[in-house]
Prior knowledge:
This protein is α/β, with parallel strands linked by helices. The strands form 4 sheets. Strands 1, 2, 3, 4, 5, 6, 7, 8 and 9 form a 9-stranded mixed β-sheet that branches. Strands 12-13-11-14-15-10-16 form a 7-stranded parallel β-sheet, sandwiched between helices. A 6-stranded parallel β-sheet has the order 17-24-23-20-22-21, sandwiched between helices. Strand 4 and strand 5 form a beta hairpin. Helix 6 (105-119) crosses helix 9 (212-222), helix 21 (481-494) packs antiparallel against helix 22 and helix 27 (681-703) runs antiparallel to helix 28. Keywords: ATP-binding, Helicase, Hydrolase, Nucleotide-binding.
Amino acid sequence: MSLKDQHIKSEYRSLVDNVIQDFYLPLLHEATLYRRAVGFFSSSSLIEISKGVGDMARNGGKIEIIASPYLSDEDIEAIHTGYDNREKIIENALMRQLTDQYTDYFSVERLNLLANLIADGVMDIRIAYTDNHHGLGMYHEKMGIIEDFEGNRVAFSGSMNESRTAMSINYEAIDVFCDWRGEEAERVNLKENAFTSLWNNVEPNLQVLEFPKISKVLIEKYRKKEPNFDIDHEQFRKRDKIYVETMTKEEWKVAEAGPIGPRVPYDIELHDYQKQAISAWVGENYRGIFDMATGTGKTYTGLGAIAKLSEDLRDDLAVIIVAPFKHLVEQWVEDIRRFNMSPIVAYGDPEYKDWKKKLSKAVLDQKIRYDKKFLCVICTNATFTNQFLQEQISKIKAPILLVVDEAHNFGAKSYSRFLDDRFTYRLALSATLDRYRDEEGTAVLYNFFGKKCIEYTLERAIEEKKLTPYKYHPILIYLSDIELESYEELSYEMSKCLIKGKDGKYKLNKRGEILALKRSRIVAGAIQKLDALKKAIEPYKNDNNILVYCGATRVIEETDDNPDDESDIRQIEAVTKILGNELGMSVARFTSEENMEQRSMIKKHFQDGDLQAIVAIKCLDEGVNIPSIRTAFILASTTNPKEYIQRRGRVLRKAPNKSFAEIYDFVTLPRPLDAVSGLTSEQANRDKTLVENELARIIEFGRLAMNSMEANNLIWQIKEVYHLDEIEEEQMK
């Protein structure tokens, strides 16, 4: 076969085409000479250059690479002033780009391959930089020529650098010319002549030099063993005319019966941004984070990524999917099965009581049966820490992909201790990965999972009509005298519980954290919320699709001197009584006390219109999907952005006949605004922690609302009364 036998397009775009698998791999498989002028020289660019060269190198091909050094301002200044020999400065700049940060299997194998090719004289790298009366500069031309054994040539050029970012994330394009296509032959000749001039260092105002020391360092740094010429086959397994040649009889038999691993269903078409996220994840060697707003298809994007990796590995893969709660696992299971997977569901439920037996058998089968080499397990966070499950994971011989939904939870030490090198491939899914007031836990997540491959914000989701727009109505209520007294007493006690952390910042000790939780429950359970809710919900008492979201707290009665008294009624009970008894609405509670079957029935009655309202605790934080919610009354105050951003996102899921949603947010302040002017400076300062926390939520909810002026007017009013703008200006000085 030759280049002429390949289907070669005139243009490839990185978000439309899989440039690696559709262009580089099939063409380089036929090549005997690969000449490439790229952007900056680095370990990352070397890894990308290696994709496709294994076959041609094994077949006796030759590779010539021209790259440019990344020179810092200090480097250029040193060259201009003659501080040091320019070639020495360039050499040092090149050395800085050779890092040890790549430890995953494919990167290590690829760098080892290239180091061997350089040592054997198969691959040669030269460094180019401009040198004219304007001074020293970088060489930026991007082009390449691929030639086969018959002398057929393909030339290409364009904006694409040999880097993961360019190949997978940015919207890049290359133009392609074939010398057997009539007038395109001239373009190919021009590209080859230009490269030859560069390679031989006869191009005006351009220096192209060999740096033997760089080649030596590359060999010493990255050559670990014999080269793995099959690395492309391992990473990009695919049933095309190249890889079919390598399939065994057993593989053919299984393939003809259909894939044993996941595939994207024919009736599901992923959006461009989902494909882009998957492409970026592949570019990061199948590691990364999908930071996507609730309701934008995070689960399907994750499943699409699983399908892509499994196909690339010819289904020789074990997938461990972890979700926080049982009902989220159940939601995943339904979608997983659509993607041609039969998961082992692992958690303590009678329906899945034999999961341990199934898992141990599947792990054994995967080692000895070709038709059972794909394995999928889904479990809750709690089950993931189970000793038996961890032991079985350690026994798996196939590469393992760990997928964690609502991955922010895994920043906690109880989960993060299980994040280790057993998992070659990694994917974190979360609308809010950064952990609130936990920089250390957040750093653990980024260090393990890698970079964000997509950041699809709620603002973008509304603009692109993936979520419904909304109106936001902040309702002011105030702490009662008893509540305010308790709040201030707890604040005073908390001030005694500050300790200095390793980073030099002050934080609460264990006792302080307990007191902070008690204080937050006072705000969440403020008694005025009940009367305010009754008044706000009155106009909706004949409507459907209503959610009232309560805090996991008790209500302190005005006459009660003990806010911890067990006689206090739970807020959810008080709310249910108001809606059901006083307003005559059909209502049901939706909490952790209801089992899976009861929850499913409540959701059905709610969606069918038999239930007007759901009164819930925690369901929006736990990922329950009820798209038909149109009006939400949020009594549960929280200062944690992760929680209130998730709650809003779940209310905004699209549903038939839902042109917009409405959110009523019960904002709790210490005292009426008209009473603030009579406070002493000390009293006003004590108020400001609560005020600023509530204000942050109003600002976040209000900025994207259809009626943003309603929130802005309240924001301005609160800031003016508490002189917050003056404080901000003073802090900026």
